[in-house]
Write a structure and sequence with these properties.
3-stranded antiparallel β-sheet; 43% helix; 7-stranded mixed β-sheet; Rossmann fold; alpha/beta; binds S-adenosylmethionine
Length: 288
């Protein structure tokens, strides 16, 4: 497996392998409703010009493009060249000319302050200094623009119930995945910290919502999603000397998790997300 290194050596903990690109696609389906709800409540509207930070393969860009429509436009930025290429290919295939993608570190992105909205999902949790990153992109916003961030609240599954009835395999996965994410320096509490983070970035107090899907039954895409997540994290787990799952385990994980949930007629709580959104201050009226 390869990880997608940038010129300055920074990398994304899950890499951009084929498994990871597939995982991002399934993740898009799982979190689309919550994402669109957040955009609607944040006030993103047809005709707006939107910046999507850490766009990955472009799922959030695609979602917000359906909201702003042909009169609006979306620019997705990501440090991962493979992910950006996959996103561009999709836009080309769809014949869309109002959705564009660029390779860039978020805090190195410069543009005139003319975006109507900045959005991002599962991105601040991976930043060593998320307030600085958030503050840096707000500079690309016009006065009165919308900021809408959606972050995972992984800690909620560690400290609360994650399956009904309790699934031993899911418990093992939740603990392992949380350990890998925390060991890589990403923030398990990112969702819970969003309100504080907006304040630290100089933004007004946001409105926020916590939500989680409950997954079960034979056809849920969640089992495949989990198997790809584990597979994508194996190199990082190995780097950390964590042990636990292996490639061979990952190959059977989807089937084993589905079998366990079906046998107990149970359900799994998918990793919850917090959406937080606000508008920046409008510029003070200037004297005539
Ligand atoms: C978990 S993925 C989320 C992708 C997408 N937002 C979504 O929800 O499907 C995080 C993405 O952020 C990118 N990323 C993380 N930190 C970044 C940074 N500082 N600058 C640019 N991209 C970054 C990674 O390369 C990765 O593609």
């Amino acid at each position: 497996m390869t990880s997608d290194a940038t010129q300055d050596g920074a990398h994304y903990l899950l890499g951009h392998t084929d498994h990871e690109l597939r995982r991002l696609d399934i993740q898009g389906d799982l979190y689309r409703d919550a994402t669109l709800r957040a955009f609607r409540d944040a006030g993103i509207e047809p005709g707006m010009r939107v910046l999507d930070i850490g766009c990955g393969t472009g799922d959030v860009s695609r979602a917000v493009a359906t909201v702003v429509g042909e009169a609006g436009s979306v620019l997705g930025i990501d440090r991962g060249e493979r992910a950006v290429e996959a996103a561009r290919e999709w836009a080309r295939d769809q014949g869309l000319n109002n959705v564009d993608f660029a390779v860039s570190e978020i805090d190195e992105f410069h543009s005139p302050a003319n975006f109507d909205a900045v959005v991002g999902r599962f991105i601040l949790m991976h930043q060593p200094d998320p307030a600085q990153v958030l503050a840096s992109v707000v500079r690309s916003l016009r006065a009165g623009g919308v900021v809408c961030m959606i972050e995972s609240y992984m800690d909620a599954l560690l400290s609360g119930p994650h399956s009904f009835p309790a699934s031993p395999l899911y418990d093992e996965i939740v603990r392992w995945k949380s350990a890998v994410v925390a060991g890589a320096g990403s923030d398990l509490h990112a969702g819970g910290r969003l309100k504080q983070l907006f304040g630290a970035a100089g933004l007004p107090q946001p409105r926020a919502r916590l939500e989680a899907r409950l997954e079960g039954g034979a056809d849920s895409p969640y089992y495949e999603y989990i198997a790809h997540s584990v597979r994508s994290m194996l190199p990082e787990a190995e780097r950390q000397g964590l042990g636990g799952f292996t490639n061979a385990d990952a190959d059977t994980l989807e089937r084993r998790l589905r079998d366990e949930v079906l046998a107990s007629r149970g359900m799994l709580v998918a990793w919850p997300v917090v959406a937080a959104f606000c508008r920046t201050e409008t510029a003070p009226a200037t004297a005539p």
